[in-house]
Amino acid sequence: MVIGIPKEIKVQENRVALTPAGTQELVKRGHTVYIQDNAGVGSGFSNDLYLSAGAEILPTIEEIYEEAKMIIKVKEPIEPEYKLVRENQLVFTYFHFASHEPLTRAMMKSNSICLAYETVEKRGGGLPLLIPMSEVAGRMAAQKGSNYLEKPLGGKGILMGGVPGTLPAKVLILGGGVVGTQAAWMAAGLSADVTILDVSLPRMRYLSDVMPANVRTRMSNEFNIRELIPSADLIIGAVLIPGAKAPHLISKDMLKDMEKGTVLVDVAVDQGGCIETCKPTTHENPTYTIDDVLHYCVANMPGAVPYTSTVALTNATLPYAIELAEKGWQKAAVENEELAAGLNIIKGEIVYKAVAEAFDLPYFPVEKHLKEHLV
Asked: What is the C-alpha separation between 3 and 58, in angstroms, rounded?
């Protein structure tokens, strides 16, 4: 199969979808890999490394899309790329369709096959291609939140762990999944006073067993959220409903109950945000203030640590990319239900229910497009 790796063009996005090591694994199986010129430089991978791994370098993004049967990316196509996606082309990337109707309609119009990292799902649950970036984003959420608690950056002027004779920062984490767990580990390691809210008692029992003594759990509900936010210094939104828009757990009216300089970090911004006043920001302009509350809502947080993120992402995506390249998307999806769950849009039809429901658009069962490969 001919595989194309374009250079990411989202603002301050330095990740690339494939490492030289991943490239070599595909090439030695007989596949052709085209890398856009300098696509890996931001992650620390030169053209020479890709050439040594067997890739070919193409100078423009247009040539990458024109030549490739499968496009592997990091972030969703943005508007300048919409017209480049071709009919019957497989695009394998993070899409987060449920929070972006123009992207959804553009990919429907392209008649391409859109396989979303974030909805590839293991039997019994677990999102293997979301986990590595969730781990990075969770750890970064605590790190960034700690920085923005500093007074010159708009925070309260509180040191995350305090010092002897002072109180540490109070950190409230909404969601005890991968993002929330990683954020809690980092905040706890900085000696903060951490509370994790979740709706699953089994998950909270697990977290209570593995977390240090400065981390506690509470049931996630409006009553408890309203009780805890007035004293919270840093609030991290870490809620995920696979493939669907995130629910607003913190409404605009709750901001009035927070102290001036409270910091909000919404990691769920890719899925619409779990804080009502959240809107996507960039690494160039990461924050804004509403009602004296600082919001950090960068939509591609792991893009700030591209080497770590690119290696972690390729480690997770490569086995699936090999399977798609070896078998084609239809046969691969029939034989691997994890990949079938990742299919969101096929040739103009939405085949992932949560995306269709988000925009009140028709939903088509994925089996319709796989029937010729079903036994």
From this structure: 12
- State pTM to two decimals: 0.88
What is the tens place of the pLDDT at every residue in 141-158?
Answer: 999 999 999 999 999 999
Q: Calculate ∠ Cα 365-333-85, nearest 5°.
A: 80
d(CA 242, CA 37): 34
* Domain ranges within the chain, ordered by starting residue: 2-127+306-373, 132-299
- The radius of gyration of the chain's CA atoms, rounded to the nearest angstrom, is 21
CATH fold of the domain at 2-127+306-373: Rossmann fold (3.40.50)
Domain 132-299 in CATH 3.30.70.1350? The answer is no
Residue 234 · residue 262 · CB < 8 Å: yes
> What does the mean pLDDT of the chain come to?
95
pLDDT 10s digits, 318-348: 999 999 999 999 999 999 999 999 999 999 9
Catalytic site positions: 96, 270
The span from the CA of 192 to the CA of 233, in Å, is: 10
